[in-house]
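INFO  loader      accepted 1 record
INFO  loader      residues=94
INFO  predictor   begin
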Amino acid sequence: AINLNVSTFKGGSITAQSTDVTVNAFTGAVLDQQSFIFKIKDDGSSRLITWNASFRGLTGALPTATVAGKVLWVEFLYNESESFWDAVTITQQV
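INFO  predictor   done
INFO  writer      dumping tokens
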């Protein structure tokens, strides 16, 4: 599981992920429109991704799995009025 304090980290990089991953709700002080960027890459085998309910996709569903050997970028902005981390950009390497 991924547990991050957004007071300390502005982004996260998961590389050579060898198991399925769960991204838990962030901890720490957060500001409206604060950004957080994930870079996720597996170890050559597709891995499942489970997102806490505090994350949601704005332009589409959040990715539920990696594509084997490909980099995935997910950029979130914090929506204080609704208490969500909104995915504003989801980009998968082709």
